[in-house]
Amino acid sequence: MAREADDKTPRRSPILATRPVVEAVFDVARNLLRTRYAGHPTTPDLELGVAKIRAALVQLKPGFTILADWSKVEGMELDSVPYIAEIMEMARTHRAALIVRVLPESSKDIGINILSATRLRGSARIVTADNLEEAERLIGLP
Fold it and tell me: Which of 2, 15, 52, 134 could join 129 via S-S bond, C-beta 3.0 to 4.6 A?
């Protein structure tokens, strides 16, 4: 079905849509937090994600690294912004040293660059990788 050029409503096929995911896994030995976002996360998904990230951060030492994989995100609603901002604020206050991120393709831009510029400015080195394999290589994962 065709849509008007000014229609910004995302269209998703129920068959092809990725299940919403917000994951946080920490590796104390590497002082690393890995986050992954996929599909079209909702407010409850992000609330749970914030809680997972908060729990993970207490296990890590200042100077930790974050690998944030946004590559499978299909879109997010505007009410997601406070949760993404809170995650970035936690990274800043817990003193992340390096954030390596993989962003979704530009047609699915969710505003991570703007949020990063306002929430993380000067607090951590931010590197954007082209794909997850490059991101893992940049932080020395096998």
Answer: 134
